[in-house]
Amino acid sequence: MAAVRAARLISRKAHVLPGQLHVTELFFEVPKNHARPEAGTLKLFGRSVRKHERPIVPLSASELAKKEKLPYLVYLEGGPGFGNRQPQQHAVTQTALSRGYQVLYLDYRGTGLSTPINADALLGQGGPQEQADYLKLFRANSIVRDLEAVRLCLTEDFEPDARSWSIFGQSFGGFVSLTYLSKYPQSLREAFLTGGLAPVKRTADEVYSATFKKVIERNIAYYIKYPEDVRNVRQIAEHITAAGGTEGLRLPSGGRLTLQQFLSVGIAFGRHGGLDDVHALVLQLAADLDQFRLFTRNALAAFESHISFDTHPIYAVLHEAIYNHTPGLASNFAAQRVGRDLRSFQWLSDAAAYLAAQPHDQPLVFSGEMVFPFHFDNCPELARIAAAARILAATTDWDEELYDVDQLGRNEVPVYAASYIDDMYVDFGLARETAALVKGIKVLETNSLYHDAVRSRSDEVIGQLFRLRDDSID
């Protein structure tokens, strides 16, 4: 694997936060294209966190230096497309600090404060083809090289045997972790994955063929819990169709609420409390219709909060690209193609016809974690970069494979993974298939947690992962 140059540290500011956290805000500079360092640079932002202690006897300079060289645990966020939360808001922080790590929360390139992708920045790259070429630099292989560059920078003065670090990958962060294990295993001490066993040998079409089945199961669970929403959802759908027509209703931010857009809020079904969140939205919209015969601004704003692609456009643009694990593959809006062939999702082809044909006593079916072409029509930020998104969807000339199955098969890095049987986002069967490819992996399989357990049931899942590491079965 080609060598990576160390990142250049360009800013470091330290603060003490409530909860006795010593947080250092870091900005780095890395090549935009690691294969062509002369092509310009990007900025990466991260926060390094360790315990802030006030001992009775002040620490010596050497003791302070030792504190600064604690082994790193690097948290890899899900997405793709989301920056990190504040360290004091993250459950991983206290668990890791109590076990002797310092934690690094590094925003991936294009997210958070790391040269974020937005429509204005992307349009500045040139025409749609230039924009698509730029977006290709934001995949997991580039993220891993960024991580390596930052590791080399931060551990430059560490003892040689202390320069490797641990990684903790949630969801897409697990995908990144498997790429890291494939390309730079010598840099890793251990890896923890939660809901992130990527389908390393499967295409986007195969992924969606599996996940649509779980989406249908979650719809059944939703209507069992809230049977009154069979009527409420239809009432909302009929109003959107009658009042908005094919163009939909205008949203406060300038986007459009169409029937298709409404039925895509099922993305929440994969989270703890997701059924309840969708019901709360449906209840608010239905109450508006009952009282006012229209949707109020508050209700429309509540809907917008469920579809956040405008504030995280990289998520929508690159979501299917994460499954193009080898050159030659194109996603071509796989979720749209797979879903429209399923009876429950005929609304992807013709929403009005679907609504008219569906009996009134039968529930309308929501989609899950899928990005469809209509999102690039109805979300104003996405509409500005739709041409680039279409080019990217048809792209097959990816620069390299994301995973090295042979390397995973001879892996020597300890890997501990939580895999969720009822995961709506990462299919359990495909995750188990991947686990079988990783030598030495230990996997916690459970049907009592959903995909976001690291946030919603953090003590439970993080505790069990560390028990996998600490407990020996022999």
From TrEMBL:
One GO term of the biological process aspect: proteolysis
Q: Which InterPro entries match?
A: AB_hydrolase_1 (IPR000073), AB_hydrolase_fold (IPR029058), Peptidase_S33 (IPR002410), Serine_prot/Carboxylest_S33 (IPR051601)
**Keyword check for Hydrolase:** yes
Ranges for the AB hydrolase-1 domain?
Answer: 73-214
Q: Which SUPFAM superfamilies match?
A: alpha/beta-Hydrolases (SSF53474)
- One GO MF term: peptidase activity
Q: Which Gene3D superfamilies match?
A: alpha/beta hydrolase
Keywords from the named record: Hydrolase
- Lineage, top-rank taxon, reads Eukaryota
Q: Which family does it belong to?
A: Belongs to the peptidase S33 family.
Q: What is this protein called?
A: Alpha/beta-hydrolase
Q: Per the UniProt entry, what species is this protein from, by scientific name?
A: Trichocladium antarcticum
